[in-house]
């Protein structure tokens, strides 16, 4: 990567958006000529790589995945989320055939992952325009910190506020490993392709992004976001867990929303006289 292609780090506002929503979209981040090349690359299939492979070992210089990851906006988002030198958990090519008549159930990809102070990210790359009838990935914003076992949510249908991906060619989406999602049925006459890579951090995920706007009021606004499917009472637990994650990411143990965490972390040290 040349000096003019240095990663474009996320701002604190965009990082807060990821923490609240569990995902981040980079619309049309990949050039048209790269998208055209991607279709044939994905059609041939991509051999697997060993778990824990370093990126240069999994994707040598000049390979298609490496060139995808070196796009400044993509590289910057990845570095902001998991830091330098992440390892590859696995990758996969997901193909939705025309009018295939079935959809993937709603699920989270981390069966036993209960980390509250760290997370993996999944990069999802869409090399072609995805229209509504092509069955773009369905996701439930703000679901990533509600712990479930992989397909426990498979029976859930039509959650209020769910998002069905419609995007231009070259869009890259980063997902928190716990976000509820699923590929929808392709009702179009066109094959739909998606390339996924899951990354594991190798450094502590603390202030890895551009923190120059950390005091921007929009950070708290993003972190205060609620979603229509949240229950009036239980939904507050999502805000509570979000505060814990933000405290870990920033190192600011005083940050709070509506004093949710402050209340329950109160441990007076002095005994009554």
From TrEMBL:
Keywords attached to this entry: Dioxygenase, Oxidoreductase
GO MF term (any one): 2-oxoglutarate-dependent dioxygenase activity
Superkingdom of origin organism: Bacteria
Entry annotated with the keyword Oxidoreductase: yes
Protein name as it appears in the record: Phytanoyl-CoA dioxygenase
């Amino acid at each position: 990567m040349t000096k003019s292609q240095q990663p474009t780090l996320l701002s604190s506002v965009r990082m807060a958006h990821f923490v609240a929503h569990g995902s981040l979209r980079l619309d049309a981040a990949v050039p048209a000529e790269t998208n055209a090349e991607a279709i044939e690359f994905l059609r041939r299939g991509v051999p697997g790589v060993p778990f824990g492979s370093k990126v240069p070992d999994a994707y040598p210089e000049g390979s298609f995945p490496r060139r995808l990851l070196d796009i400044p906006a993509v590289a910057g988002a990845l570095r902001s989320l998991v830091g330098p030198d992440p390892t590859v958990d696995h990758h996969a090519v997901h193909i939705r055939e025309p009018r295939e008549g079935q959809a993937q159930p709603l699920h989270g990809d981390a069966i036993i992952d209960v980390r509250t102070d760290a997370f993996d990210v999944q990069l999802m790359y869409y090399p072609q325009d995805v229209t509504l009838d092509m069955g773009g990935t369905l996701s439930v914003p703000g679901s990533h910190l509600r712990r479930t076992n992989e397909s426990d949510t498979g029976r859930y249908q039509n959650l209020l506020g769910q998002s069905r991906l419609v995007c231009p060619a070259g869009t890259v989406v980063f997902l928190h490993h716990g976000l509820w999602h699923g590929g929808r049925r392709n009702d179009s006459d066109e094959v739909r392709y998606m390339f996924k890579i899951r990354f594991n951090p190798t450094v502590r995920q603390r202030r890895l992004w551009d923190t120059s706007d950390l005091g921007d009021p929009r950070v708290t606004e993003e972190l205060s976001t609620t979603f229509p499917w949240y229950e009036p009472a239980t939904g507050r637990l999502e805000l509570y867990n979000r505060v814990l994650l933000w405290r870990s990411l920033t190192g600011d143990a005083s940050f709070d929303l509506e004093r949710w965490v402050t209340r329950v972390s109160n441990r007076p040290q002095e005994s009554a006289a």
